């Protein structure tokens, strides 16, 4: 059963006009407070819009976030984050049931913060922003645009934070002290959030407490569960720091393309002698996040291209 919204105003919804057709699953995405839950509630007639109208006929059912996935036949089904409590088996069964409902002409409004779920189930995505229908269309394209927008806001937030050094382990003989470890994006601004594929820098700042000849400065990137992703140091990169005098501060920048999948990571940094004797060694001292507009699996984002050849 189609549901039509005509000039619906129900804050934060602003003059919303859209139609969800028969036999379709429409995914609804928005930030909290931007209109998704309000749209669900007026569609389910739990609330009346301040102005405008919601048009639908026949039986309907609203499922809230704490409710079981009741997918018995109905003409209009509104699922307001109900999948969040479901286990893998329930989700698999629900996917089959939703497909049957769609085949029988039901209209389904599916609210979720899970891109993978929406890509799998939906025919179309509606993106609500500040109470307006910001974009709608193909699930993959619309979700990619939405995730890119969220990644940008996350990046802007990350640039406002000062990330303290909180090493899980610190060791060394004290001849040098690491005073800062920072991640910087392509703009050169410190940020705890990097975009997959951008030019990035890890900056390690060391203050030498004693004279040290030819110190080696290195970094290690790990996943949150401790998997070593990438490590290097000035010796491996054939950069000789020479003599560093007591009281001198040295900043070492490691520049690379951030070819990492969206995930949380930690940074380890160290200053040590060529034989490995540590001056200051900080394990998992700083956390950072990699964000992207698209889904990738694993750790390394290799940005693969695809060619297809068919035989005659």
Structure description:
There is one protein chain. This protein has 312 residues and is an alpha/beta fold. The chain has 2 domains: 3-137, Rossmann fold; 169-291, Coagulation Factor XIII, Chain A, domain 1 (Distorted Sandwich). Helix content is 16%, strand content 41%. It contains 4 helices and 20 strands. The chain has helices spanning 36-43, 88-103, 115-121, 139-158, and strands spanning 3-10, 13-20, 24-29, 51-55, 60-63, 76-80, 107-111, 124-129, 132-137, 169-171, 176-184, 193-195, 199-208, 212-213, 216-223, 228-233, 243-244, 249-257, 263-272, 278-291. The strands form 5 sheets. Strands 5-6-7-3-8-9 form a 6-stranded mixed beta sheet, sandwiched between helices. Strands 10, 12, 15, 16, 19 and 20 form a 6-stranded mixed beta sheet that branches. The protein starts with a strand and ends in a 21-residue tail after the last strand. The mean pLDDT is 93.
Defining key terms:
Coagulation Factor XIII, Chain A, domain 1, elongated, Rossmann fold, 6-stranded mixed sheet, alpha/beta, 312 residues, 20 strands, 41% strand, single chain
């Amino acid at each position: 059963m189609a549901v039509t919204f005509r000039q619906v105003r129900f804050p934060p919804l602003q003059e919303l006009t859209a139609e969800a057709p028969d036999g379709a699953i429409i995914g609804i995405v928005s930030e909290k407070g931007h209109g998704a839950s309000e749209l669900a509630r007026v569609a389910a007639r739990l609330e009346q819009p301040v102005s405008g109208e919601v048009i639908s006929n026949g039986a309907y059912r609203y499922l809230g976030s704490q409710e079981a996935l009741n997918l018995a036949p109905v003409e209009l089904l509104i699922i307001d984050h109900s999948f969040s409590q479901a286990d893998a088996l329930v989700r698999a069964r629900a996917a089959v049931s939703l497909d049957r409902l769609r085949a029988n002409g039901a209209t389904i409004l599916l609210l979720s913060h899970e891109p993978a779920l929406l890509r799998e189930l939906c025919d179309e995505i509606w993106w609500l922003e500040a109470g307006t229908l910001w974009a709608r269309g193909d699930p993959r394209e619309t979700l990619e645009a939405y995730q890119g927008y969220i990644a940008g806001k996350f990046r802007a937030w990350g640039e406002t934070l000062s990330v303290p050094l909180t090493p899980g382990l610190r060791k060394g003989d004290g001849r040098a002290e690491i005073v800062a470890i920072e991640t910087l994006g392509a703009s050169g601004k410190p940020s705890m959030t990097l975009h997959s594929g951008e030019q990035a820098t890890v900056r390690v700042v060391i203050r030498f407490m004693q004279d040290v000849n030819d110190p080696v400065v290195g970094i290690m990137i790990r996943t949150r569960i401790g998997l070593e992703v990438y490590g290097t140091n000035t010796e491996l990169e054939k950069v000789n720091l020479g003599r560093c005098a007591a009281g001198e501060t040295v900043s070492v920048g490691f520049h690379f393309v951030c070819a990492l999948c969206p995930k949380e990571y930690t940074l380890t940094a160290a200053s040590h002698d060529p034989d490995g004797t540590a001056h200051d060694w900080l394990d998992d001292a700083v956390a950072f996040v990699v964000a992207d507009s698209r889904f990738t699996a694993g750790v390394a984002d290799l940005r693969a291209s695809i060619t297809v050849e068919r035989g005659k």
